[in-house]
Amino acid sequence: MIISKLLAEEVLATAMSTGADFAEIYAEKTRNNSVGFLDGKIEDVTDNTVSGVGIRAFLGTRTVYATTTDFSRAGLIRCAQTVADAMGQSKAQVQINLAERIFGDIHPVKIVPASTSMNTRTDLLKAACFAAKERDEKIKQVSGRLLSVDHNILICNSEGLYTTDRHIRTRMSVSAVASNGTENQSGFYGPGRGMGLEVFDLISPEYIGRRAADQALVNLRADYCPAGQMTVAIENGFGGVIFHEACGHSLEATSVATGRSQMAGKLGQMVANPKVTAIDDGTIPNAWGSVNIDDEGNPTQRNVLIENGVLKGYMIDRLGSRRMGMAMTGNSRRESYAYEPTSRMTNTYIANGTDKNEDIIASIEYGLYAKSMGGGSVNPLTGDFNFSVSEGYIVRNGVICEPVRGASLIGTGSQILKDIDMVGQNMETGQGMCGSASGSVPTDVGQPLIRVSKITVGGRS
Fold it and tell me: Cα–Cα distance between 50 and 62 in angstroms, integer?
């Protein structure tokens, strides 16, 4: 164990010694390994360990949080005393009795990346990057990265919880640049899973490289997208980033509990088209955003956020639970011990609908088919968003036609939920890193092919 049960009891009692009504310890030892590739050769190899402890105390909805990298008894007691001193001046005698709890592992790993040779890992990355380079003579530059994380945590609290968890995840990303001699265009693909190197039995490195190269080549021959309001079909996988950013953050207790969300106070109300059902599910085996327990020691759940257009629930951490008077949902997350946890998404997606994918495209007289989405920005209070389309095509008379580039989708989260009027049946997820108050955490976004009846498309008029 990272910290013995007996020592943890003493540390928690110290943190609560000035009147706190709850305390917790979060300890971690995380190994991060990364291999980078650029211009035909391995560029860098990094291997580091993040190790430390965060101690937090509550008094109602007030929290105090402190961290240390000193795992000795003296270091931990000193950190806990810092929390107690900041909490108040009263004196309290606290007796803590911890009981170990084992939640189990629903994300089995067959090949631990760190247990394999460096040659094994570099060969996988080279295979992806060379496949991208060899795709076409117009591919002039390829870069790639293979990342593996081995995350080990201990969580214990004054309610008696004492538990540990280990979570391994692996991701490979490839970026390709295509050139015709006068201009350059790029493509990217970066799948990941809560798995070891066996992930490449499901997604071959060569496929990753070719997909990045193909996107770059499409964009190289594309004209600029026309601007204006139009019907848009957004493809599955990373297309779900729009719901994640424009709507998902507005359903986190971080913003809901303080009234800084467009979704605050709307439980039971119709907030989306009846065809829209949206779910956050941290229990999907080996998914990129899944964990066995959240960062407050609660088992993750399948949380229905919107069902047939009706707002059913929020994503709630312990502080949000206290502020809102609602149960925790297993959504407390943090980048590392250096961050106080807060409510965050895990694997968030729009569920499959009843529309056939071919009917969605056929229904568009003139519009945009967004095959792949890029990054963007959103204001969770208003829901205003702006997202780039990394690969797009014009649709005419129900047929996907020429590629276009430079497109962006502009709107508000509340409005796009109502304007999704067709939902297909090919739900897939895409992987990303989500940044918020508690740092950067892995999340899956997803959806089937959907149709938005009208949305502002940024481009060139």
Answer: 28
| Number of other CB atoms surrounding residue 53 within 10 Å | 23
Interacting residues of 259 by C-beta distance below 8 A, sequence separation 6+:
none
Among 301, 240, 244, CA closest to 435 = 244
pLDDT at 1: 60
- Convert the pLDDT of each residue in 117-158 to its tens digit: 999 999 999 999 999 999 999 999 999 999 999 999 999 999
Q: For residue 352, what is the DSSP state?
A: P
Coil, helix or strand for 155? strand
Cβ of 453: how many Cβ atoms within 10 Å? 17
Single-letter residue type at 116: T
For residue 360, what are its two tokens?
Answer: 């969605």
8 A C-beta contact, residue 361 and residue 370: no
373: β partners: 389
* Whether the Cβ atoms of residue 318 and residue 332 lie closer than 8 Å to each other: yes
pTM metric for this prediction? 0.95
> Cα-flanking dihedrals φ and ψ of residue 414, to 5°?
-65, -35
CA atoms within 13 A on the CB side of 386: 4
Question: pLDDT tens for residues 396-414?
Answer: 999 999 999 999 999 998 8
E-strand ranges in 71-160 read: 99-100, 139-157
pLDDT at 30: 97
Q: Which residues contact 357 (CB under 8 A, 6 or more apart)?
A: 424, 425, 426, 448, 449
- Ranges under pLDDT 50 in the chain: none
Report the Cα–Cα distance between both ends of the chain, in Å, rounded: 62
Beta-carbon contacts of 165 under 8 Å, excluding residues fewer than 6 positions away, are: 103, 105, 152, 153, 155, 291, 292, 293
